[in-house]
Each structure stands twice: as C-alpha cells, then as structure tokens.
Amino acid sequence: MKWKLVGGAMVWVLHLISFQSHGQESEKTTTSHAVTIQGQPKYGPDFKNFDYVNPNAPKGGNVALGLQGTFDSFNPYIVKGTPSAVSALLYESLMARSQDEAGTDYGLIAESIELPESRTWAVFNLRPEARWHDGKPITAEDVVFSFNILREKGNNLYRTYYADVVRAEVVSERKVRFIFKNGDNPELASIISELPVLPKHYWQNRDFTKPSLDIPLGSGPYKITSFDPGRSVTVERVKDYWGQNLPIRKGSGNFDRITYRYYRDSTVMFEAFKAGEYDWRQENVARQWATGYDIPAVKDGRIVKERIQHEIPVGVQGLVYNIRRPVFQDIRVRQALTYLFDFEWMNKTLFWGQYQRARSYFNNSELASSGLPSPEELNILEPLRGQIPGSVFTKEFTLPVSDGSGNIRNQTRQAIDLLKQAGFDIQNGKMVNQKTSQQMAFEILLNDPSYERLVASFVENAKKLGIAVSTRTIDPSQYQKRVEDFDFDIIMEVFGQSVSPGNEQRNFWGSGSADVPGSENTIGIKNKAIDQLVELIVNAPDRQSLITRTRALDRVLLHHYFIIPAWYGNFYNLAYWNVFGHPNVTPKYAIGFDAWWVDPKKAEALNRNGRK
What we know:
The chain has 612 residues and is an alpha+beta fold. It has three domains: 18-47 and 78-203, D-Maltodextrin-Binding Protein, domain 2 (3-Layer(aba) Sandwich); 222-311 and 572-609, 3-Layer(aba) Sandwich (D-Maltodextrin-Binding Protein, domain 2); 316-568, Dipeptide-binding Protein, domain 3 (Roll). A six-stranded antiparallel sheet has the order 1-2-7-8-10-9. It has a five-stranded mixed sheet with strand order 21-20-22-16-23. Strand 9 and strand 10 (175-180) form a beta hairpin. Helix 9 (331-338) packs antiparallel against helix 13 (409-421), helix 11 packs across helix 18 (543-560) and helix 17 (528-538) runs antiparallel to helix 18 (543-560). Residues 1-25 have low confidence and may be disordered.
C-alpha cells in the first residue's frame, strides 16, 4: 500500500476566543484552539475527548500487525529508501485532524493558532509541556527547522504542498509565524497546522537526504525499541508521554507494545495471520473475504470478521498509463484499451459482487461529477474550450458495461475502431502501427502477486487483438524505485482523496510535478487547462465552489482517459483475533484503530484456548 498525502481547502471559520492586535496594520486576528473547513468546530475549546474514542480505555497489552513489503529506513520524508510504517507514530504535528469532521484540526504541539482576517499569515503558540523523548522542549526553532528542511531536502510533495508559504520565522521560544504569498489560498493554515515537527538538535548534524536505520528522536506516544532490518519493528508506549492527557489524545495510543511484521508475499502474509503470527488485518482481497476465512478459528469465535461502513472519499484505483510513453500519448489508444477491461465479469467471478465500478476520481463523495456539466461548471469549463476534450461538453462520461459472461464482442469492436482511428490495424494477427509497422506492446508492472489474477482477463482481451501485453511482478522496493523514476508502462495505482481537496492536486496532476522523480504525478500530465482547474480548487473560497470546481476537474480528467478506472468499496473488511475492544462509535473518515485496546478478559480467554 502506498501511502499518499492529502489535504483540505475551504473558507476558514474559526471558533472565536478573542481579538487582538498583531502589529500588522492593527489587523484583527482570531485566536482559536481549532481550524475548521466549514462552520464551527464540532468540539469547543473545553472539550474532553473525541466522540469516537473511549476515554477510559485500558492501557496495556502487546499487539502484532502485518505489513507487506520491507523497509530500509526510518525517514519517511525523503524520496530515497523504503520507510518503515512506524514513522507516523514517532513525530507529532502542530495540530492534528479530527476523524469525524470534514477537515478540522485541533491543537497538539500548538495549543492555539492566530489568523488575521486577510489570512496572509498564521501564528502558532506552542504548548510549554511539549517535549522530545530526550526531555528537551519542542521550540519554535524546531518548527522553523522542520519547515525549511522538508521543503529544501524532503520529498517533492512538500515543495508542492508548501509552495504558497513564503517563510517561517521564530517570534519567541514558543511562538512561530508563517507568512503566506497572499490570502487567496484558504487551506494554507490547515496545511501548516499538520506540519510534522522534527528535532533540530538531532537532525542538524545528520544527512537528512540519506535513508537511515538509526533510531530517530521523536515526540509522539510511541518510540522504537528494537527492529530486525527489513523484517520487523517494535515500538513501545512512552509512559511519560507529554501529550497523553490532551483531549486530542484521550482514549488513543492504548497498546503497550506494537510489533510490525513484514511479509514479502501476500499469500504468506494471509497464512501467517491465520496461524496467529499477527493480530489484526484489513482484508482487501474479496475472494479471501468470501471464502478464505472458512476456518475453525472464525467458526468458534477466536477470529472476528467485521465489516464497517465509512463515508471516506475513496479517490480512484485503476490501471494507470504512463503517458510519457509514445504508445499512450494518443487519447484514442487509451480509450480503446478501456473497452478491454471487463469489470462486470471480474466483479462476479473474482470479487463475489462486493465492489462498485469506479466512475470518478472522487468516488464515494459529493465531489464526483455525473451527467453533463451544470451551468456553474460550464462557467469554469467554457474558457478552456479547445484545450480540453470536446466530449466534456457534449457527452456524459460512461464506461463500457458487459453482461458479465466474459464475452465482450461489442466492446472489442469499439476498441478496434478507436485503434484504427489512431493509426493501428491488425496484420497477421498483430495490432501494428500503420506508419512504423511496429506491434503495439506494453508491460503492466505489479508489486503484489494477487494483482496478477485481477489483470489477467484484461491481458487476454488485449492479446486477442494482437497486442503484445506482459505482466511483471517485482518486490516492493524495486517497484517503488521504478515508479519513482517513472520507469513503467502501466501500473495498478490508487489516487487517494480527502473530503476537501486542495494543494495535493498539484502533485497529482500538475505540470510542475510531472518530471520530478518521486512525485505523485505518475501519469505524467502536463496540461495547462488542468493546471488552471487545480489552481481554482486550491483557491476555492467556499464549500460549494470547491464542489463545483472539483467536479469540473474530475470530468476533464475522466475524458482524457488517463487511467482505466477499476473498482471501489465504501467499507472496511476487518479480521482480528478476539483480544480487542473498540469504541461503539466508528469515525466517519477513518477506521479508528488507534482508539482500540486489548481487552484483558478476551486476551486471557484466547490464551487458554490457543490460536492453533
């Protein structure tokens, strides 16, 4: 699973505490415990805990989690290396997002944020109790250092994400100010509030750009205590963690020890779970969910299967073209190959009817486009006429629908017609370019053997047209390197989205990120019209305009056929050994596993009964 970074964009409406002069033209400023995208924060300045946690959850217990892949670094902020998943537990941010609101951040290292009416700067006031694990205080110098080193030496996404921030400056030991280019980008305060804060005294004499397995100094609820390179990492709860009594942390971070075990192969990983090697699993293979858990441990209740619905925008998953390759630079070729992807057969045969077809880049949300453009969308799209596909204005975006039998004769004919229009034809059983006489050929690069069966029908349908298609599955570290270098023809990729898209759209689709190794613009899009739509989203002044602008971008992306949309589900399939308790309320926009706990009675019962 590749982790992707997403954010929010809207008008900031702050919970008013006080007005004060900040010395910049006596402009009124608002000081708040939270920044929210819409309306007022759900939780007031005196809130005790989030609704989706149990504030009295017991602390204790050891938990093992399984991950596919490997790791060779504890630095998740650079392009080089394969970072361990524990990194997110080590560092805190200035503020952190609630999991049951559409984009509200509450104070963590920072106890409050000050914003002027113009939204041209933001000031964060740091908590005096905030500490690194070595006992030293977290200061404004740490914050400024973190911002600068991430933008200068970190992954390209930080340069993109912080592009509209002019500078960060120390006001005092516990006060830091960020200056913005202008007030047109209303999400900047939220973006900066989620800045991961790194210890200056630890990093200033180390090479930040190189992967390292030196155990880093953190400030979060857990710290690394041991690891086996590439195989496992163990973290332990910090007993004197400075933030454990904050409302934002109450009821979370309940496990005493978490061990992450890495597996190179998904099949081996699944068997390891059934054997009791790790405790909790999110099942992403529909066939396994339907048939793989027909085992004694599930039947007698030692393993629990649970499906939890969610309201998370799921973005889009699909077969992603690298349009840097000449074969995919013709939109008709990309559209033609879409006809060879038989979702209905796959859903019936491989997925047991569990999934829906992805038809948007913002599936499962109000941001998804549908039908023809609304009048409001047309106001945005009309100035781009001639720069975007004409079908955006005249045709509803649709995907081919088969009868699920595996026979796609009609779709095949449509694919052949489009390929002929693009200058290809079948000669001696091969689909060849009429100008060069070269056979159409491409490779689908995968990092998980389980994907091979998912693309098999598409590969066979393409071969029937004389297209030379191959699949290649490589280990995760090699895969990551090739994707970062854009060294692929087609990959199976997920573009994750948030409730409120914003600056991260530049990294996904912006021309400025197309040639930057490691960027999320894996497709290679360089399109001025799409750049303009992205900037409109970044600068959306309110929720309704954000929705309208995102729908306009969505339909332009769709009509370009940059990907073959695959499937999605609006639920989590969870399987876990019956040792856990969890809150009765699940947050709208997350699984909320950080609020689970080990139930001592359940753990004792499982120990008596055994896992074999």
